[in-house]
Amino acid sequence: MLIILVAASTLAGFGTTASAKPRVTPQEAELATCIRKASKGRAWLERTLWGLRDQEGGWIGAAVANSNGTHDLGPLQINSWWVPKIAKLVGRPEVHVRSWLQNDACFNAEAARWIFLSGLAATGDYWKAIGVYHSPTGWRQARYANSVAVHLQRRFGRSIW
Question: Could you tell me which residues are beta bridge partners of residue 79?
Answer without folding.
Answer: 72
